[in-house]
Amino acid sequence: MAPELKIAFLHPDLGIGGAERLIVDAAVSLKKLGHNVQMFTTHHSSSHCFPETKDGYLPVVVIGDWLPRSLFGRLRALCAYVRMVWMSLIVSAFYSSSFQLIFVDQISVAMPVVRCFTKAKIVFYCHFPDMLLTTRRSLIKSLYRIPIDFVEDWSMSKADYVFFNSHFTQEVSRRVFKHLRPSVPVGVLYPCISESLLNRQAENVSLEDCGIPSGKRIIFMSLNRFERKKNISVALYAFALLRQSLDNDLQDSVHLVIAGGYDPELAENAEHFQELEQLSSSLMLNESVTFVRSPSEDTKLALLSNCTALLYTPVEEHFGIVPLEAMCCKVPVIACRSGGPLETILDNETGFLVEPEPAAFASAMRKFVDDQSLHDKLGEAGRLWTLQKFSSDQFTAGMASICDYFFPRPNGSNISGKRFWLKMLNGKVALVTGASRGIGRGIALQLAQAGATVYITGIPADDCLISYVQARGGKCFAIYCDHSRDEDIRALFDQISENEEGRLDILVNNAFSGVSSIMDCIKKKFWECEPQFWDEINNVGLRGHYVCAVYAARMMVKNKSGLIVNISSYGGLFYLFNPAYGIGKCACDRMAADCALELKNENVAFLSLWPGFVSTETMMHNIDNLIVNSSVFGLEEEAMKDLISNAESVEFAGKCVVHLASDKNIMKKTGRVLFTADVAREYGFTDVNNKPVESVRSVKLLLAKKNHHTLSALVPSWVRIPGWLMVASNSKL
Asked: What GO cellular-component annotations does this UniProt entry give (predicted)?
């Protein structure tokens, strides 16, 4: 079991909003993993908080509540920053020395303060950029926000890791946070469903207790904080339109509940609540609408349990935990077709995604009136979806992974003995050339699965791979590119630069067009092949790699970050297939070494990666030919059969690239030639089929290939020939 970590959470106001629910869930997850958790906040009220912070399960320390939350109803952001800075100073002065990991959310200004006084790792959870949550209706307001926005942007650079609550938030943040360095690892960690919601039943709370008249068969519900940005008025207008479309009998059977968090100390809550009540009166809906302020957990559960559908009206909501809670309770959701709901709601399967217009909401609501079985159908699908995608187990895995990332365990496993996998390449942009099949295809799949946005090239561009990538939760773009044409390569990088605002983090040079030529010329001497054989082997491969490296380096140097990987082979060291192949692979390795020297001061790494024997489509198609010609590899037929049966999968090299790209100390490896099996051994992973892969440097493996099986059995698997000795043995000096 891992040693217990001491972890602090710094949160501005520990109330009952979605952000607070996430922070509480994060603290609970870490505590269940055996860590010591302490929460710090500037405000905490026992009458307006979640049970875990009220009953003492999560210890809460309030610091700075004496500072004003506003000055004459204004300057709220400034006051929030001052309160957060004060809390950070007190925590740093009196508590920080005992913490190894500090979580900050909502107000990033805490990070540079904490950074000055502690060596603890800092994780920031970004719900959404605060600079985009405010209006600038006057010149004074615009001037007032300039320093606040700058501090928010600048302070993001002080994080050791940044989590986002959705891909939508991540994309927006990448555009607005100019100081968020590409070298800062980022990831998406979806909020989870509260475990208490999964099996809990509302106790002693009836609909009448909630203010809902009897006889209401169809109940729609809006559940949001009483804030103008939540667009709650759309629910009232839509409900009015729905009633107008119904017969008198049906009008009496439908009802709308407007519920949500309400803080009497926030002027906007009180003002907007009155605005909504007045709007309800003007639409003559008073008898058909019930307002519920700050419902208790039991009241909220009772309302959800009897709800026909949830109306979720915010536009471009950053994530939205409420739809998950509704779907968990088997309640379909009608939400705006934008922002986080695009990632949480399956349109026409767990609810409906519509335009943010009253008519669109009313049309979707009418479907539940006309077909009352729709509630059960979509509700069951919604619960299954949330349990699969947004369970507490998934969330806990993410929290455990971030702990493992900063404080790896000696045996590479977590508390349960199973290694958690965190999408460490979220936010990264990668290009894999020649990815329509084979190793390139496998690398693209692994990069996308790790969270990167992946561009792939091929002739033709492989649109099928896009669907495979999307099935793994990734993002992929296929681009036609003939790597023998410099103009095609330049257009490729121009398109990536335009789409990704000049960003490229990873280039994998894999394009190669010489496989069929090699197969046609097996056992032929070089003088028996036509001279154009050289171009068939090395034009798309070696020369294409160099041209791609030139354009990639220009982008990476500007961003002071990047990784370029040439896919090579041990044909660069030993004779394999023919001289043209060996010269090309040796040059790929030399390219990595020499380019790395010039790129080192720019924080851009350049490596050469040697896969072993790989079960690509072409290799598997030519198995008989390979066995017959096994002498080309210096092997007997039986040894070749054994090599084929233990071949690497096409995705194994992809797992290597993912781990290398995630390595914070990758510059220590720049310029080197790396074996895939050695990379796997160093980072502690196996092939996709959980099968370990032996390195070509393994003495045990080499003895077995030479049929010295008895001697091979006596040699430990970890005994390897040093790389320098392999080079020296082949040197002609």
From this structure: endoplasmic reticulum membrane
Cis geometry, peptide bond prior to residue 182 (ω within 30 degrees of 0): no
Catalytic residue among 190, 551, 570, 581: 581
For tokens 């936010």, name the residue.
427
190 is an active site residue: no
On whether both 480 and 521 belong to a single domain, the answer is: yes
pLDDT tens-place string over residues 465-508: 666 666 566 677 888 888 788 888 899 899 999 888 888 999 99
Residues 335/336/337/339 CA torsion (nearest 10 deg): -100
DSSP structural state of residue 514? -
Q: Which of 139, 157, 192 is the last residue of a domain?
A: 192
CATH number of the domain where residue 89 is located: 3.40.50.2000
Full residue range of the structural domain in which residue 543 is found: 429-612+648-696
Q: Which of 178, 181, 82, 182 is nearest to 131 (CA)?
A: 178
User: Distance (Å, rounded) from C-alpha 128 to C-alpha 292?
Assistant: 27
**For position 352, what pLDDT does the model report?**
94
| CB-CB contact of 78 with 1 (8 Å) | no
For 175-216, the pLDDT digits (tens) are 888 887 766 778 888 888 866 665 665 566 666 767 777 778
- The two tokens of residue 420 are 């958690």
Does 78 reside within a domain? yes
- For the record, the structure tokens of 246 come out as 């119904």
For 393, half-sphere exposure in the C-beta direction (CA atoms, 13 angstrom radius) is: 6
C-alpha Rg value of the chain to the nearest Å: 30
Domains of the chain: total: 4
| Least confident piece of the model among 431-435, 440-444, 729-733 | 729-733
Any idea which of 16-30, 310-324, 466-480, 506-520 has the lowest mean pLDDT?
466-480
pLDDT given for residue 55 in this prediction? 80
350 plus 239 within the same structural domain = yes
Spatial distance between the Cα atoms of 607 and 253, rounded to a whole number of angstroms: 69
115, 23 in Cβ contact below 8 A? Answer: no
Number of helices and strands in the chain (H, E): 31, 20
Q: Identify whether residues 153 and 16 lie together within a single domain.
A: yes
Based on the domain organization, do 107 and 218 belong to the same domain? no
Q: Is the pLDDT of residue 238 over 90?
A: yes
